[in-house]
Amino acid sequence: MKFISTNGNANAVSFGEAALRGLAPDGGLYIPAQWPQLTESFVENIREKNLQEISFELSRLFIEELDSAVLRNIIVESVNFDAPLVQLDDKLHVLELFHGPTLAFKDFGARFMSRTFSALRENTGQDLVILAATSGDTGSAVAQGFLGVEGIQVCLLYPSGKVSHIQEQQLTTAGQNVTALEVEGTFDDCQRMVKQAFSDASLNEQLLLSSANSINIARLIPQMFYYLYGVAQLNEVEEPIFCVPSGNFGNLTAGLMARKIGMPTSGFIAATNANDVVPEYLRTGSFNPRASEPTISNAMDVGNPSNFARILHLFENDHHNVTQHIWGASFSDSDTRKAIGKVYEDFDYVMDPHTAVGYQAVMQYQRTNQGYFGEDSAPFIILSTAHPAKFGDVIESAIKQKVTVPDRLATCLNKEKQSILMENDYSNLKKWLLEKYK
Ligand SMILES: *Cc1c(COP(=O)(O)O)cnc(C)c1O
């Protein structure tokens, strides 16, 4: 199995190379060159399989260079929490993807990526240094995902004073092989310093550097696992419509990849907040990336979704083809607050703001576009991307109740913050990296 670039001007590479490089040398994103197919019996018997079995069989299809025993071990360590499907009514289901350590679906990608990186670097005999700029959520999933993983050092840059208290606690209290650099600057400054490090030849000769950002193919593969596990938990094998609260569109792309290999599905709903470049593209055929706007579903505040290139590639750059499989809608913060209250009233269920964007999209689909995918009776599966306790203030004002904070979040809130203050200046970062990791 080889991986090619969406830009089409780079050599096909193995999974390991695609994973450790992150971005292809021509600036494109890696995507499988061929699409292996799930067997009929896999799909027919899917309801008898658990999440780890599904995960192992899927990863085996895409990753050839790791032994089965190594791969199995990676799955056991990384997919070590559940993704239950909760039924709200006859047709409506919520797939809860927030049962991992940082209470968001990014745990799937980060945990799997960390362990595959660790297995892949064994051949080099050198420690791998993961360098990442974070504005919040990605960093905490990376910190937790790579925590204690052998042969890997993690260095996270975040903008001082510009992440939420919970996010900062999650970034700075991990310890062990994870170091948080608190940069006196903005997120863009952090990103610029990281980019400079990756393009600095002398630094790269001395350290084995890699990124862990959301465009890495090693994060998309594990995100296919739970789509199939969602199908496996339906009352019978049906072709659900998946609704995906989206920002960078990695999650939705993983669903499209699962469809490519034969997952039963009727279609996908792309749900966004005010950052609606993709729903707009679906409606009009023109893609106009722009600066992002802040919202209460802030992990989806993306104005230029990087995985859009993969989506276009999957549908051969054909707008009509894209719209056959994806329908989109966007919602304001005030509607999202109301939706959180309504879901609580109707179903006694608490949704985080991201998931509530997805809920509204399903409601709108049913009101105005039922039958769009040619399937009137398909069940809906909303991907629930985060635990409501991560957004306590918004939830409490919407449902007039306190949200219970799970232990794994409470623990990190009580730990002492440990970060290293860093001037907004690349030469300082370079000096620090060499002193610490060489
Ligand atoms: C990252 C994130 C999203 C958006 O996922 P994409 O793959 O970037 O589309 C949605 N909800 C939450 C809670 C997230 O952390």
Descriptive notes:
The protein is of the alpha/beta class. It has a domain at 84-102 and 217-405: Rossmann fold (3-Layer(aba) Sandwich). It has 19 helices and 13 strands. The strands form three sheets. The chain has a six-stranded mixed sheet, sandwiched between helices. Strands 8-5-6-7-13 form a five-stranded parallel sheet, sandwiched between helices. The chain has a two-stranded antiparallel ribbon with strand order 1-2. The two termini are 34 Å apart. Bound molecules: pyridoxal-5'-phosphate.
Task: Give the key terms.
single chain; 19 helices; alpha/beta; 438 residues; globular; binds pyridoxal-5'-phosphate
Note poorly predicted spans: none
Outline type:
globular
Q: What share of residues are in beta strands?
A: 5-15%
What does the radius of gyration come to?
Answer: 21 Å
How many separate helices?
19
CATH class of one domain: Alpha Beta
How would you classify the helix and strand content by structural class? alpha/beta
Could you give a short account of the major beta sheet? 6 strands, mixed
Average residue-wise pLDDT = 93
Helical residues, percent = 40-55%
Short description:
The chain is an alpha/beta fold and 438 residues long. Helix content is 45%, strand content 14%. The radius of gyration is 21 Å and the shape is globular.
List the helices and strands and how they pair.
Layout: E1 3-5, H1 15-21, E2 30-32, H2 40-44, H3 51-62, H4 68-78, E3 85-87, E4 92-96, H5 106-121, E5 128-133, H6 137-146, E6 152-159, H7 165-172, E7 178-183, H8 187-198, H9 201-206, E8 208-210, H10 217-232, E9 241-245, H11 250-260, E10 267-272, H12 277-284, H13 308-314, H14 319-325, E11 326-330, H15 333-347, H16 353-369, E12 380-384, H17 392-399, H18 407-414, E13 420-422, H19 426-437
Parallel strand pairs: 4-12, 5-6, 5-8, 6-7, 7-13, 9-10, 9-12, 10-11
Antiparallel strand pairs: 1-2, 3-4
Helix pairs in contact: 3-4, 3-10, 4-5, 5-6, 5-10, 6-7, 10-11, 15-16, 15-17
The structure holds pyridoxal-5'-phosphate (PLP).
Pyridoxal-5'-phosphate binds near residues 214, 245, 247, 250 and 300.
